[in-house]
Amino acid sequence: MRDNNLLLRIKERMGGISANEKLDDAIKCHYDIVHEIYLANPLYFKIALKSNRFIVISAILAIYYTNESPSFKEVKKFCIKNDLLSNNTLDSFISFLRVAGRLKAIPDENDKRRLSYRPTQKKLEEVTRIFKSIILPYSIIYPDVDIGHALNHEEFISGFFKNYSEVVFGNIFIHDVIPDCRDFVSRDGGHMIMFNLYVESLRQNTPNVQYNYLKASFMCAVSRSHIKRCLQLAEYAGLLTLKDNGQLVELSPRFIRMVRDCFSFYLTTTEHGLMGMKS
Predict the structure, then answer these.
(1) Domain of life here (predicted)?
(2) What residues does 105 pair with on adjacent strands?
(3) Is a pLDDT exceeding 60 seen at residue 278?
(4) Are the C-beta atoms of residues 81 and 59 closer than 8 Å to each other?
(5) Could you give the CA distance from residue 26 to residue 206 in angstroms, rounded to a whole number?
(6) What is the pLDDT of residues 48-84, one digit of tens each?
(7) In the chain, pLDDT over 70 holds for what percent of residues?
(8) Longest C-alpha distance within the chain, in Å?
(9) Distance between CA atoms of 2 and 192, rounded to whole angstroms?
């Protein structure tokens, strides 16, 4: 069941952050950091940052850090109940994480039918880098806030997820809070495509973007045809207009608002996680 009280607080906080004059600088900072993360393993991150997959990863960690005996059964129950992935797709994704060395399966000592798990150091380092891509830009908007304590905390992830789990278990998901972003964040590389367009508009100082699909393909680790299909869906939804055979992308005010709202959502929910850090 959705935590409507927490959702209301998040939306109110998002409104304040979205109106901040330094938000564009923070978005550019986030984009540059995520691009560096992408370069480390583009085939993995273009999948892992899809909204449903990232929620599954967040649920895995939230359950791990708030439950004395976490199990894949609990992860599956949460994900299926919230229609995040089908049962078969979820099994495949969990297997993918295990084979890739990001999750370790552990047989339960008291119940051999129950399979527990723990995230590997590789996975913890990746998740830390992803959330730091939001925490560092947060310091641009709020330079007086001391983020050093969180960034240098030896138990950063465990402390963070004790609070961030409230967002996950409260069923507060970005594609529900900001429906316009669904066609972007639910696709391979969609997170990067969305922010790549926005950052290009900032760099060109216009919402009418001269778009280089070859460069964007490299930046987002997907094919040019994949990007074109994504933008065509966005055009159909009224978020942008494609002209000159797609070389000119006119971003609507609704698209601009969507991206700012998305990043405000990331900042707000991450800020909520930081509240769980011990002194």
Answers:
(1) Bacteria
(2) 117
(3) no
(4) no
(5) 18
(6) 888 899 999 999 999 999 988 888 999 999 999 999 9
(7) 96
(8) 65
(9) 28
74: nearest Cα among 92, 88, 56: 56
| pTM of the full structure | 0.93
Do 161 and 169 contact (CB within 8 A), yes or no? no
* Residue 240 near residue 257 (C-beta atoms within 8 A): no
- The answer to whether 43 and 100 are in contact (CB under 8 A) is no
Q: How confident is the model at residue 104 (pLDDT cuts 50, 70, 90)?
A: very high
Residues 247 and 256: their CA atoms lie apart, in Å, by 19
Q: Which two tokens stand for residue 188?
A: 């391979």
Residue 31 to residue 53: CA distance in whole angstroms: 19
Q: Is 238 helix (H, G, I), strand (E, B) or coil?
A: coil
What is the pLDDT, as a whole number, of residue 43? 81
How many Å apart are CA 39 and CA 56, to the nearest integer?
A: 22
How many other C-beta atoms are found inside a 10 Å radius of the C-beta of residue 50?
Answer: 19
Tokens of 102: 């990001």
CB 231 within 8 A of CB 246: yes
